[in-house]
Amino acid sequence: MGSEFGIERILWTEQEIAGRVAELAAEISGDLIGAAGPPAVFVGVATGAFLFLADLVRRITLPLAVDFVRVESYGSGTESNGAPKISSDLKIDIRGKHVVLVEDIVDTGNTVSCLIPHLRTKGAISVSVCTFLDKPARRKVHFELVGEGKFYRGFECPDSFVVGYGMDYDELYRNLPYVGVLNPEMYNK
Questions:
Q1: In this structure, what CATH number is given to the domain that contains residue 121?
Q2: For residue range 86-106, what is the model confidence (pLDDT) as tens digits?
Q3: Is 107 among the catalytic positions?
Q4: Tens-digit pLDDT profile for residues 23-82
Q5: Which positions fall inside the Phosphoribosyltransferase domain (predicted)?
Q6: What is the mean pLDDT of residues 148-156?
Q7: Residue at 181 is within a domain
Q8: Residue 96 resides in a domain
Q9: Residue 107 lies in a domain
Q10: Which of 31, 89, 93, 107 is catalytic?
Q11: How many domains does the structure of the chain reveal?
């Protein structure tokens, strides 16, 4: 399975993903249950996090709001350009609210280190990060959470270029129900 799409190997199956998302949702729900204030806002980083965000919030057991930000940092390449720019901002007022920033993958840390201060200036009382994949081997920037914010991660990812479950290469592969390593022949043409 997967090789027909240029996938070198599958890292996490659809079933493994569903199980881990359920565990994350239970953990976040437990942490937010005692949080004072209005319902939390889950902010998805478009476009890569859309499937993860949808699956995650369906399993959160508390009232919540959902919004998106769009940050450009990849273009059609396989590595971040290191200078993320917010191209579409929140519509929801997050002042005085707990925010859970939902990412598909945290690798260099550039995107979250750009977004966390942005959310703080908009008045969030806490900012947590929930990333589907964490790639600490590629971390270049250390980031600090806001208030009582926590860092949640689905899986630790090897230092490979991965696609599927919302993540893409040149806008392709987002629809795969699993996460796999893209064969370098697909992008080293």
A1: 3.40.50.2020
A2: 998 999 999 999 999 999 999
A3: yes
A4: 999 999 999 998 878 899 999 999 899 999 999 999 999 999 999 999 987 555 556 667
A5: 15-169
A6: 96
A7: no
A8: yes
A9: yes
A10: 107
A11: 1
